[in-house]
Amino acid sequence: MSATARIGVIGGGASAVCLLDALAHQHDLPAGNLAIFDGGRHLWRGRPYQPDLDAMRVNAIPRDMSVRAGDDRHLAEWLAARRLVVGAESSFLDPVSGAPFIPRALYGNYLEQSARVALVTLAARGWSVELHRRMVHRAVPTRHGLVLRTADGEEHEVDYAVLATGAGRPADPYGLAGCTGFVRDPYPAAERLAAIRRDDDLAVIGSGLTAVDVTLALAARGHTGRIRLHSRQAVLPAVRQRPARFTPRHVTAARFRAMAASGGSLALADLIVMIGAELAAAGENLDAVRTEIDAARREEPTHRLRRQLGAVNAPGGPLRILQQIMPDVGPDVWPLLPERDKDRLLATHHRAFMSLCCPMPPASAVALLGLLESGQLELIGGLERIERIEWTEGADGADGAEPGDGGFVASSAHGRHRAAVVVNAVNGRLGGATDLTAPMLTSLVDAGLAEPHPRGGFRLERATSRLTVDGRPSRRLFALGDLAMGSVFFTFGIQSLVDRAVDIVTSIQSDILDSGSAVHSARRAFRPAACDVLQPI
Q: For residue 258, what are the CA distances in angstroms to 37, 276, 515?
């Protein structure tokens, strides 16, 4: 293979931005050809970061949302530069914790600018860059690489392809697609929720971060009707505690990477011991974590929300430590766990786990608590089904429905509740591939280039993010983001995407240069270019 790489990036969302930034700052990789394919409406923003209402905030602080490997000030400095250029604006400080949580749409602006700067940097270093506003329809192996074929018949030969297609549309678990009054995807909320009458009673499917976004968006629009969050377990995201700088000693990504490099594994019981040692070193108790996990299932949701809000600025507490270390080490520790332990965790504690890993900003929790206490918002568990109903004379009404009324009925162990509109807030990661990417992903499986993982996405090699078939890694195919969810699980979170992007770039570099060095050793070669300046527009 020549020293000039031909790289195809399939997808143009947040994960692709992380990859472009990593590629732009790997100075030991010779310049090559880069082709990016995406047919979406808003390039670089992905599904959750489109232009939208300011009420919907990113749930992590800027230092955890930087797309620049090794530079957790990158986003904060962009925000500061933007304020100087566009004038005074809110600092988006949370009134409870004092930490900044910026709007999702503003983070989308940052992603756009980061992508543009990365592309300009690559071009200045001699890379040939092509941006195709269409999706790859089929991938075909050749003797020397892959041919990426678009739906209109264009063909592009590459040496390496990175699948960064992101999540598809949310799943439709109750078969409501096509029904009048059903909003399958709430993003962007400013557009998708605009037709809802302010006095409509709503059913929202789900109780996670997307459901929080929907509720806050409705409240920002002055909604007066009832809002019911229907889900099976009725668990809200935890409340993010006031951030604190904490340097772990026992539960570290480096430790788990070393285990993986030596072919080791880690039983869940041993991981719990390590977490206990970490908490003990910080003066905390593992029993408090067990209590918090149990509370997600047993504690009354409003009481849990109020209790966690009251602890946001407490001097101690294990939650703030877990909320810092879990996104950092999760992608590295998950592949080390035996399959039986993974199954046990997902079967028993998945919802509590996601609640603690993906907390909401305190200000969002305050808004939710006010709506819950006023009675406008209700959280209902035990969801069994939601049906589209046209009420007629003599029909068995629900929740005050009158004959002749239309709408939906949500049935659960707590009764039947009518809604004029149903908003789907199911996790998009569970919806499978998008309509644009499904043919391409199917072609990979049919060609024997990819192997579906039973937990979703494709099987891949953790250290390099290369796709695997029968345990053998591909030289040419990588997955970044939600297509890796079965193997990595912790695909959510910018920190994880940045680390995986570095793995991919250094793997490509190693293959091109045939250096024989360990993939992760090239991490030390990452350094910002001296002329790299984000333009805040």
A: 35, 20, 20
